[in-house]
Amino acid sequence: xxxxxxxxxxxxxxxxxxxxxxxxxxxxxxxxxxxxxxxxxxxxxxxxxxxxxxxxxxxxxxxxxxxxxxxxxxxxxxxxxxxxxxxxxxxxxxxxxxxxxxxxxxxxxxxxxxxxxxxxxxxxxxxxxxxxxxxxxxxxxxxxxxxxxxxxxxxxxxxxxxxxxxxxxxxxxxxxxx
Length: 178
Ligand SMILES: [Fe+2]
Ligand SMILES: [Fe+2]
Prior knowledge:
Blueprint lengths: L1 H38 L4 H24 L7 H18 L1 H26 L6 H23 L8 H21 L1
The structure holds fe (ii) ion (FE2) (2 copies).
The site of one fe (ii) ion has 6 residues, from helix 1, helix 2 and helix 5.
């Protein structure tokens, strides 16, 4: 009895961590695009990606509330950090901003893929699985859009994307528990 209870709790904890980190990630993504737009005054392509991130964030905000999951305590840091990352890369240039998008979206897309695999056989989470699948596809689109807009032509592309990927992974790691 006790062991099965522990099992259920830890599974719920895992899903709560998942939703917390997704909400944090979408919040960060929105801030990055806002930072980019502050520099690249209403770039149409970036604006379109931001609009989708807003829907992603709103969706996870709602799920968070519905399930009574506390949000990450790190929001203020992700707010400033995301915005600065977006603005800084945009200041380097539009291609650098696109490189930032490639790096962030690639990490988020893989992260969603891991969640998809984890939830695959969970019949109670079909709705959540659908959401993750849809958002993952949109993150892949964002990455592809950024590649189409010459992300790879920015100077120091490899180093830049590697560094941003590391930062994004660290943010994901921290947002799971804090
Ligand atoms: Fe997103
Ligand atoms: Fe995205």
